[in-house]
Design brief:
CATH class of the largest domain: Alpha Beta
Helix content: 25-40%
CATH architecture of the largest domain: 3-Layer(aba) Sandwich
Structural class: alpha/beta
Number of helices: 10
Length: 278
């Protein structure tokens, strides 16, 4: 596995990978890697031949009240996991590579960035869209792979790439779950043992709402029952909603594109999940 830290090393490494005529897919990450991330690497290699995984804890997507310094970092462990997963290139840029002195441009996405996480984490998607555009600008990948676990983020990136006419294909990869249904996330490590035993209720609740909708229960009633179930297990619910998948607009009608999304806090940990509504 090649490792690049500077722009020069990145350019040299990408040229070496592309020498065989295969493409390169980018897997942007903030490190603290788990099997969900590694599934993105596998998909990147499957669609393009070579996978380039970036590890960059992006400061601009953290709100002032969120602890940027607390975000888990394990460079040695991450590199070992990427190597074992067959990643072709690990890219670890510094802040100055992504945000050089005098940097004055940000990307503000509306549309799918509005509401839900956009309301609860002001500025978050600005940081996400900006850093993804910069990573793609430096790496010039043929494709970029993102997990569907952060559904709204995926739609924001798709909208940004489409609107700016960036020559990169955005690929969404299915949510990877633990055996009990909990969506894999770097945040899960902060759950206490007791909280970890309760956390799968999030996915179970989504599945229960979907089943209720399939039986013909009105969306408002099904969602209200779901919120009550989460609250009954000690969750503080930010939202549980039925939305149009690409636009994130709330809907009361189940269509093939509809998505059930949820964000709920258990103790100090905020958990996100989503499933198709049909």
């Amino acid at each position: 596995m090649l490792i690049a830290r500077t722009r020069e090393e990145l350019a040299q490494s990408l040229a070496a990978l592309r020498a065989d005529g295969a493409g390169v897919a980018l897997v942007p990450t903030m490190g603290a890697l788990h099997d969900g991330h590694l599934s993105l690497v596998a998909q990147a290699r499957a669609v393009c031949g070579h996978a380039c995984a970036s590890i960059f804890v992006n400061p601009t997507q953290f709100a002032p009240h969120e602890d940027f310094s607390r975000y888990p970092r394990d460079e040695a462990g991450d590199l070992a996991k990427l190597r074992a997963a067959g990643c072709d290139l690990a890219w670890l840029p510094g802040v100055a590579d992504i945000y050089p002195a005098g940097d004055a441009t940000v990307i503000e996405v509306t549309g799918p960035a509005q509401g839900w996480e956009g309301d609860r984490r002001p500025g978050h998607f600005r940081g996400v869209a900006t850093v993804v555009a910069k990573l793609c600008g430096l790496a010039r990948p043929d494709a970029a792979v993102f997990g569907e676990k952060d559904w709204q983020q995926l739609q924001v990136i798709r909208r940004m790439v489409g609107d700016l006419l960036l020559p990169v294909r955005v690929i969404g990869a299915p949510v990877v779950r633990e055996s009990d249904g909990l969506a894999m996330s770097s945040r899960n490590r902060y759950l206490t043992p007791g909280e970890r035993s309760i956390a799968p209720v999030v996915h179970a609740t989504l599945a229960g709402v979907r089943a209720a909708l399939a039986r013909g229960v009105a969306a408002g009633d099904a969602l209200a029952d779901g919120e009550a179930a989460l609250a009954g297990h000690g969750f503080s619910v930010d939202y549980l909603a039925l939305v149009d998948g690409p636009t994130l607009l709330e809907t009361k009608v189940v269509t093939p594109a509809a998505r059930l999304i949820v964000a709920a806090k258990l103790g100090a940990v905020r958990l996100l999940d989503n499933i198709a509504a049909t």
